[in-house]
Write a structure and sequence with these properties.
It is a single chain. The chain is an alpha+beta fold. It folds into 2 domains: 159 residues, DD-peptidase/beta-lactamase superfamily (Beta-lactamase); 134 residues, DD-peptidase/beta-lactamase superfamily (Beta-lactamase). 48% of the residues lie in helices and 11% in strands. It contains 14 helices and 8 strands. Strand 7 and strand 8 form a beta hairpin. The longest helix has 16 residues. The radius of gyration is 18 Å and the shape is globular. It starts with a helix and ends in a 5-residue tail after the last helix. The structure holds glutamine. It comes from Primorskyibacter sedentarius. Homotetramer. This is Glutaminase. Keywords: Acetylation, Hydrolase. Its EC number is 3.5.1.2.
Amino acid sequence: MSNILDTLKHISEEITNEADWGQPAQYIPELAEIDPAQLAISVCTADGKTHSTGQSDKPFSIQSVSKVFSLIAALGRTGDQLWTRVGCEPSGTSFDSIVLLESERGQPRNPFVNAGAIVTTDALLSGREPKMALAEILGLIRAMAEDDDIHINAEVAKSEQRTGERNKALAHYLASYGNLLNPPDLTLGTYFHQCAIEMTTVQLARAGRALAGLDGAPNILPALRARRLNALMMTCGHYDGSGDFAFKVGLPGKSGVGGGLLVIVPGRVSIAIWSPGLNKYGNSKAGTRAAARLSRSMGWSVF
Ligand SMILES: NC(=O)CC[C@H](N)C(=O)O
């Protein structure tokens, strides 16, 4: 097996030379102006070490990567009952699509498209103040990363609250089918704040250790739950780009429009990558290439 740090440096150099970064998310004003020419990678290994390249201590907006953590928290609260409100099938549609919701009578295909994540956050909220649910998600992430220095960027949340008409439409449409238990604005406010959590790649890779089932990871996720989450990340974690990611990378992963990626090699390593330019699916463009090269060079795949 090649040396991890040398491989990370080599991939980072190649990607930087290619300078094919894509554009940051344009629909969230706070993210639109970020310089796309950035790449950070962190890998946590089973021996408790973390290897990194690039600006691995720079916090970035985790956006939809937060959906993994809100799902863990919601399942902890409601158990398998959540699956009566949201499915576990890939959607084949973009992350913010509304088309399937009508024919499927308000039941989102999976918890990683926006409609499914809004239902998941609604289940976690369950009549409480949004700040209680947010404290629960943040507390879970901090415990999984074993790092309390993880926070919500209120400006990013406000920026989405101002401009997130599509998500507002999704929430109200879900409510029309009786699949939101709280007022849409409360659920959405919670959802926008959870998406605005910022983490470094070191913190995100550490938070992924329990999903990878690494020795020494905090004992937070039962093995069966981790296995199911990995299955969902593999089949749905990149929306309509999930097949492409599985084909090229061969690993469970979750992306966010902030350019973050969490990639799990079950039993072996947890990987976090950040590069803010996006591909046509809204997933990190350079980050996806980095994940593909890393899994290939290291022989990491679940197949
Ligand atoms: N794909 C994403 O990261 C989407 C998250 C973003 N907050 C949204 O709801 O649109």
